[in-house]
Amino acid sequence: MLSPKKQKFLDYIKSFISRNDRPPTFVEIMKGLKFNSLGTINWYIVQLESEGLIKRVKGSNGKRALSVLEKNIGNKLPMLGLVAAGMPIEVFDNVEYVDVPSKYINDENYVLKVDGNSMIDDGILDGDYIVVKKSQIARAGDTVVAILNGEATLKKYYLGKNGVELHPRNRKYNIIFVSTDDQLYIQGQVLGVFREYN
Amino acid sequence: MLSPKKQKFLDYIKSFISRNDRPPTFVEIMKGLKFNSLGTINWYIVQLESEGLIKRVKGSNGKRALSVLEKNIGNKLPMLGLVAAGMPIEVFDNVEYVDVPSKYINDENYVLKVDGNSMIDDGILDGDYIVVKKSQIARAGDTVVAILNGEATLKKYYLGKNGVELHPRNRKYNIIFVSTDDQLYIQGQVLGVFREYN
DNA sequence: TTACTTACGAGTAACTTACGAGGTAATAAT
DNA sequence: ATTATTACCTCGTAAGTTACTCGTAAGTAA
C-alpha cells in the first residue's frame, strides 16, 4: 500500500504521460509538483522503482526516461479481447483494463468479454466479462477457453468415452466430440464471471 | 468476542481504509474517534493486535506501520445475507466480507448471495453474488431488491399502466402487479453480479 | 555545450512506541 | 457495609524511527 505522497507522485507521472505521450523529465516533475530539489525527485524514483511500480528505460533519443509499469494500474486486469463461438479470439489493439475483485489479480489472469450465447444456460450472457487463468490443462467440468482447429470457443470441458468433449450450454448448440484429428488447445480456465448493470 | 468500543475502533479503521485506500495514522484515528490522547490509540492497537485482528507491518516501529489483517483488507464489501424469493432477507449474524471490483467500494453498497432461480433468465443463478446499492428509488428496467409486504425479493422493476410491476425472470413465475394496498419498499438497486468457479 | 540523470550527506517534520498515572464499574473478599 | 481486585478504558508526554526534503556535485549521453 503506497503512501499518499508516493501515490501522488506516481499519479503525476501517469497523467503526464497520458497528456504528452512521453514521460516527464526530472525537472518537469519538480516544477509540476513544486519541489525544490532534484534530489527529492530522484529519491521518489528510486523508491518507486524498488517497489516495482515504475522502471527506467532508455528513451528514443538516448536520454533516460521513465515508464510506468502496467501492474500498478489498480486492481485491474487487461481485457484482451472478445471470445465468441466459432471465431478466433478477437484481440483488441489498445488494451483496456477492467476492474476485478482483487483476489484475481495475478500475472496469469486476464479478462475476456463474451460475445454470443453459447453458455447462456450457465448464466454467462452476451456482454459478460470472464476472468480467465492461463492454463493448458483442464479438469472435467471446468469452463474453459479452448482453441479448436484455430477457432476459439467458450465451453465446458468433459471427458467422455471417446475422449474430450466440449459442451456448450445452450440447447441450440451441439456437443463437440474432439477427435484425434482435431487440434485442441486449452487456453485458459474460467475463474469467474461478472456483469454490470447501469 | 470484541467489546463494543473495540469493535467501533476496528470498524473505524476498516471504513477509513475503504474510503481512502490506506490505513489511518494514529492522529487521524484520534481525531476521527474524538479521543484526546495518542496513548489511547496505542492502547487499542496493542489490544487488537493481541487479539489477532490487526497487524503492524513494519517491524519495530516507524511510520504507517498499521495495517489490518488480510481478512479485512482490500476491496471488500460486507455480505449481509441471502436474498431468496418470497422470504425476508436472511441476515447473517457474523458478517463476511467478500472481494468485489474496487469501483463498487463505497459505504452505500453491500453484497447479497442469491438463493433461488427467480432471475435465471437474466443470468442470475442460485449462489451468485450481487452488489446492491442502497436506494429507495428505482428506474424502470432496474434490477432491484424489494420488500413487498414484508417479503424480500429480487426482481426487475417496471412501470405499467396500473403502476409498479415486479418482473421475475423465470417463466415459471408470474409478474407481480403492485396495488395500492401493497406495501412496497425498494431496498436497493443491483449494480453487478458475479460468480466464482472452482 | 546542453540537457538531463545519479549520488550523497544532512536536516526536519510526521509518525509510532513506551511508560506512568488515573478513573470507572463490576465482582469478590472481609 | 466497606474494602480489595480486576478488567476496561483514558490521558499526557517523552523518546525513538522513518519518510520526505533539500542543496550541491558529479556523471552521461547527444
CATH topology of the largest domain in chain A: Umud Fragment, subunit A
Measure the end-to-end span of chain A: 30 Å
Based on the coordinates given, report the CATH architecture of the largest domain in chain A: Ribbon
Question: What general form of chain A does the structure show?
Answer: elongated
Tally of extended strands of chain A? 11
Radius of gyration of chain A: 22 Å
**Low-pLDDT segments, ≥5 res of chain A:** none
* Count of DSSP H/I helices of chain A: 3
Strand order of the largest sheet of chain A: 4-3-5-6-11-7-8-9-10
* Largest sheet features of chain A: 9 strands, mixed
Can you tell me about this structure?
The structure is a homodimer of 198-residue chains. With 198 residues, chain A is α+β, with helices and mostly antiparallel strands. Chain A folds into two domains: 4-69, Winged helix-like DNA-binding domain superfamily/Winged helix DNA-binding domain (Arc Repressor Mutant, subunit A); 76-194, Umud Fragment, subunit A (Ribbon). Chain A contains three helices and eleven strands. The first copy, chain A, has helices spanning 4-20, 26-32, 38-50, and strands at 54-58, 64-68, 76-84, 90-99, 109-115, 129-134, 143-148, 151-160, 163-167, 176-177, 184-196. In chain A, strands 4-3-5-6-11-7-8-9-10 form a nine-stranded mixed sheet, with no helix packed on it. In chain A, strands 1-2 form a two-stranded antiparallel ribbon. In chain A, a hairpin with a 2-residue loop joins β7 (143-148) and β8 (151-160). In chain A, α2 crosses α3 (38-50). The longest helix of chain A is centred in the first third of the chain and has 17 residues, at 4-20. The radius of gyration of chain A is 22 Å and the shape is elongated. Chain A starts with a helix and ends with a strand. The mean pLDDT of chain A is 83. The interface between A and B is medium-sized, with 29 and 31 residues. Chain B binds a DNA duplex (30 and 30 nucleotides) through α3.
